[in-house]
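Predict the structure of Phosphate acetyltransferase.
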Amino acid sequence: MSKLVLVLNCGSSSLKFAIINAANGEEHLSGLAECFSLPEARIKWKMDGVEIGAILLTGGYDMDERIAKLCERAFQTGLPVFMVDTNTWQTSLSLQSFNLEVPADDHQRVEKLQNYVASHIDSKWIDSLSAASERSRRLSPPAFRYELTELARKACKRVVLPEGDEPRTVKAAAICAERGIAECVLLGNPEEIQRVAAAQGVVLGKGIEIVDPNAVREQYVPRLVELRKSKGMTEVVAREQLEDNVVLGTLMLEQNQVDGLVSGAVHTTANTIRPPLQLIKTAPGSSLVSSVFFMLLPDQVLVYGDCAINPDPTAEQLSEIAIQSADSAAAFGIEPRVAMISYSTGNSGAGSDVEKVREATRLAQEKRPDLIIDGPLQYDAAIMADVAKSKAPNSPVAGKATVFIFPDLNTGNTTYKAVQRSADLVSIGPMLQGMRKPVNDLSRGALVDDIVYTVALTAIQAAQAAAAAK
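Done. Here is the predicted structure for Phosphate acetyltransferase.
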């Protein structure tokens, strides 16, 4: 329903005229005044069936007592009240010519507008409309990003960033702090970090902590020696290893001083995950660590795994990756329909590679009969409904897969990068699965937004792990 913007002049002499003119009749004056004194939670006075959505005071005068009394209920109920210096006629002309368009490249205004609209939409009501539908539900990229941001805000977690003086990381930390996504702990020389921040045009204030490794490194030596004493760790070697900020950040995580770790903007994947594997280790019930990417297609979000960690998993390991990835998809609001990808569909092909995928599918189905898993499936049969009808008409997954499990790292990493770069898509990840505490790796080509959303993922993982431990 359209809403009326009620325009009133602040001066007392024109009060009655303005209301009569706006309401098209003096009889509405008393009705309007009575409306503002009613106890309803929201003003519901209408003109020709149009609800008042805001009050605009013109003239720039000090507010007259009668105007203030008239608007008192508006202030109490949260009805927007604006004031301008121009007179009523000039203001009306300005409003008629007001440009409501937001430039496509004005990302800040677009995001604020999206967040405002999303915050006023009842998601539970929308979900109820599709609850009884037999059609599979797709989570759109904007909805996914909004959900990530909101869940991270609610989590209120601390995430350590070992590459604290890296420009993209510094800017991402500032954005996370500004949006309330997480409290970021930057490891590095404070002066250098501030210099980088100034060069990026950002201010590091509330929500960001800078830790100088040189000032705290020594206090972690005893704990590192204790954790690695079975491997012959000495204090000398411990001090040497703690020169690596990833090791330092991992120990902060191990001692619960932070809730998660994000690294990889300049470090390799091996540099990022080796210390956590040695010091944090895998979660109970997990036999390996794997990874997923969230691929933000134009109309839905897909999950790709494993594209970063395991070079050539066995059938047993591949089944574990499928289960971990399905659980990750569900945890972030994506209905998991798992396609085990191969170069052939069903029984059309043979060979050791296809047999590995077939066996992994069987094992995953046995371990988790509650999940919808099928394979082997070719990529086109897994994602395209028309191809699925001809290649796998009886598959519960073909044509509507949301989780894609690749047979090896070569296939997975190549596919993810080809899809991302060719289609110019946003991808979030890799998100590591199976760790006792959340640690996430970044691509060295990661953009600032990639880092922001990886921090959000990490904060959410930390909250989910804490909830599961209760």
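The first helix runs from residue 15 to 23.
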